[in-house]
Specification:
With 458 residues, the chain is mainly beta. It folds into three domains: 87 residues, Immunoglobulin-like (Sandwich), CATH 2.60.40; 157 residues, Sandwich (Jelly Rolls); 152 residues, Sandwich (Jelly Rolls). The strands form seven sheets. Strands 9, 11, 12, 14, 17, 18 and 20 form a seven-stranded antiparallel sheet that branches. Strands 21, 23, 24, 26, 29, 30 and 32 form a seven-stranded antiparallel sheet that branches. A five-stranded antiparallel sheet has the order 10-13-19-15-16, with no helix packed on it. The radius of gyration is 33 Å and the shape is globular.
Amino acid sequence: MKRNQVKFPLLLLLALFLSAFSLFGCGGSSDSPSVTPDTTDTTKPSVSAFTVPATSTSFTISGINLVATDNVGVTGYLITESATPPAAASVNLTTSPTTYTAATEGAKTLYAWARDAAGNVSALSAGKPCTVDVAYLYATNSATLIDLVYGTNYTGIDTWGSGAVLNNAYALDATYNPVFSVNNAASTWGGSGAVAFNGFTAGTLNSYTALHFKFKADTDTAVNVKFPGASPTTKEEIIYNVSSAISLGNGWYEFTIRLANHGSLSASTEFALIATGNFYVTDIYFDNATLAVPKAGDIDGGGSFYLKSGDGNNQIDLRYGTEYQGISVWSSGTVIADITDATYGAVWSMTPGSGWGRSAAAIAFTGFTAGSFSNYTTLKFKFNPGGVYTAISVKFPGATTEEVAYSLATYGSAIGTTGWYEMTLPIATKHGSMSTTTEFAILTDGTTDFKVTDISFR
C-alpha cells in the first residue's frame, strides 16, 4: 500500500516535467493562447486618381472624378480648397463626390482626401486648379467680377412703365450693402413695379440653366420673373413664392430659378423681376448649375392650372389677388401655417379649430370669378393626412352638390412611404354645375393637422 502511494506522485511529477519541457523547449509560452495579435490598421488610404475641370460656369463644379484605394477599404471622402489635412471626422462623404460647391468666383485649387475605418486620412496629393466664372449682372461685393456688363452684354435697365424708381446703389439695408432698390411708391401698376434688364443678344439667356438672385420685399411674399419671348408664351411669367427660396434672415431670400420652367428662351432679349410694394435685389447672376431632377409632375407641361406649388417649379396660373382674392378658414378657427416640408417643400399645414362647434380644419380660396370652375373637370393636390384621416372633403358653395368626401382608398395614391397622397378628384362628375361658384375649400373634421400642396385644376 505504501509503495503504491509513493509511486503515483513520482509518475505525476515526471509527467508535469515532460509537459513543461515540451512547452518551453519548443519555444512556446504557457500563456500564449490568451494573447490577441496586434491587428491595428496604420496604413493610410491613397488617392489614386483625381481630376477636375479647368473651368466652371457654376459655383457647383461638376465632372469631378475621385478614386481612392486602401489596404482594408475606403470609408470616407472629402474635397477641400485647403492643403491642410482635415480631421478624420470631417472626411465623411460615404461615396466619392462628383461635384464641389465653391463659395466665391475665381481661381481655385482643390484637394482630395480619403479615410479608412481606422481613421487614417490620406496624405496630401497634388492640388487641381479650376477657375469658377459665373455670369454676374449685379453683386453686393464690388470685388465680384461682373460678366454681364451694362452697355455691352445688355443695353438697358427699365421699369416697363410701372412708375418704379430705381436705385442701383441703395445703402440703407442692414444686411447687404449696396443693393438694387425698386421703389414703387409712384407705381402706375396698382402698387407693383418692375426692374427689367434688356437688350441681350437673342439666345444669350437660353445658354444658362439657372437664374439666381437675393430678394427682399417690404410687403410682398413672392416675386414674378418674366422672360418676354419665352416659348410657349404661357411660361413667360411665373410667380415664385419666398417659401420656395432659401431664407437668409432679415427678410432676405435667395432664389434659384430653373430656366427650363420658362420653356425656350432662344428668342428672349430681356427679363424682369416684378413685385408689389418696395423691394430689393442683389447678387443677380446666371449659371449652368446642375439642378436637382424635378419630382414627377412638378413641371407644368400645359393643360393644368396651378394654385399652389411645393417647390416653385410650376407656373402659378391661379394667382392670389388676381384670379382669386383671398385665403380663408371660413370661421372654423383653423390656423394655417406656410411651412417647409422635407419631401415637398412649401406646403400649407392646417391646425384644427373649434369655430364650428367641433374640431375641424379648412383652407378656402375665395373671390374667383363666377363660372371659373366650370372650365375644369379635375382637381388634384398632394395631401398628408397626418397618419389619421382616411378621407378629405372638398366644398364648392353654390355647386349642385356642394360638399363631397373623397376617400384615400378610392381617390388617393400613396406616394411611397412619405405619408403623402396624390389626390385626383373628378369634380365635374361629383359636384355637378359650378356656374355660380366663386370659392372652394379643402376641409376635414378631426383634431389632427393635415397638409396640402401642389394644388391644380385641369
